[in-house]
Amino acid sequence: MSSSILKRIPLQMFWPTFDPFLFCAFHNDTYPKANASMGPDAPLNNRPLGQDFGGIDGWRMYHGKTVPGFPAHPHRGFETVTVVNKGFVDHADSMGAAGRYGEGDTQWMTAGEGVQHSEMFPLLNEDGVNPLELFQIWLNLPSKNKMVPPHFTMLWNEDTPVVKVPDSQGVETQVKVVAGTYQKVDPSPCPPNSWAADSKNDVAIWLIDLPENGEWTLPAAAANLSRTLYFFEGDKVMLDEASGSINEAFVLKSDSPLVLRNQGKNARFLLLQGRPIGEHVEQHGPFVMNTRAELQQAFQDYQRTQFGGWPWSRHDQVHDKSKGRFAEHGTEEA
C-alpha cells in the first residue's frame, strides 16, 4: 500500500468522516417520472413510508410520504454542506428562507444556535426519469461558534470554480472547488462563522473527475490534517502503487502528494480535508455540542422555542413546480 494511504474503508450510504467533519451521506437515486404532486409516479404501498431507506427499485422516499426527502427537523451546533450533482432540493426553514437548488449547486447552512429546515427532493420531469445525486456533509463548529445566529449561503454552480488540469498526454482532470484553494483558484465564500472561513484551517471540499486513462496528482497539503478521498464512481484506479476499487475511502497522509491513474471508465472522487478542531464532541441526533449539559440544553431550548417555529403550510414544503433555481433568504443575508 502507498505510504500516503493510512487506511482503507469500504463505503456504504453513510461514509466515514473525521474531525472536523461529522458525517457524510451519499444519496444516489434514480427516481421514475414525476406525478402531479412532484412525487414518483409509482406505487408506494410496498414501502415503509416515513423510514424508506431500502433502495427498492433504485430509489428511496427517505422520511417523505408524498415527495422524497427530509421534512422539517432541527439542528444546532454545526453546519450542513449539501452538494447536489443531479436533481433538485427544495429548502425551507424557520428563518423564513426558501430555495430550490441543484444541478451542480451547493447550499452551505450554519445551524449555529438552532434552526429548523426541510430538504425535499421535488421530481419535476413528468416524461422520464428524475435522477438525484448529492452529498450532505456535516462540518463541526468550534465551541466559540456553536451558538452563532443561523445563516445559509448558496454557492451556485455557475460561481463554483472548476480547474482543468491536463496530464502529460493532454487528458484533462476536472477539480470542482467547493471549499479550499486549488492552484491559486479560490472558491466562493462560505458562511462567515464556518471553520472553513479561516484559511489556516485548510478545509477543502473538492469533486474530482478523472477521465479514462487520465493521471492527476493530489498535491501535498499541511501536516496533521484530516484528509479522506472517497472513490464513488468508476472502476479501478491506481493510487501511487496501490490498486483502488470503487466504493472505497482512503484516509491519507495530508502532507504527501498522491498520484491517481485511472485504469477504467471515468472515475469520480470526493475529497474532504481540514484541520481537526480537537474539541470533545457530544452528539445526539441533530444536535452537536461539546458537553452533555449543552446537549440537554439544546433539547430544552428546542422544546421551548421550536427554534423560531415553522412558518410554512406543510412540513414537507415544496415550492411551485414552475419555479427554477432560486434563493430567498428571509431575514438572513445570502
Automatic annotation (TrEMBL):
Leader sequence residues: none
Residues of the Pirin N-terminal domain: 65-139
GO molecular function list: metal ion binding
Region of interest (Disordered), ranges: 313-334
Cofactor entry: Fe cation
UniProt key word S-adenosyl-L-methionine: no
Domain of life: Bacteria
Pfam families per UniProt: Pirin, Pirin_C
SUPFAM superfamilies xref list: RmlC-like cupins
Keyword set, alphabetical order: Iron, Metal-binding
Residues noted as binding Fe cation in the record, renumbered to the chain: H73, H75, H117, E119
Ranges for domain Pirin C-terminal: 208-308
Cofactor annotation remark: Binds 1 Fe cation per subunit.
Family affiliation: Belongs to the pirin family.
Protein name: Pirin family protein
Organism annotation: Marinomonas profundi
Lineage: Bacteria, Pseudomonadati, Pseudomonadota, Gammaproteobacteria, Oceanospirillales
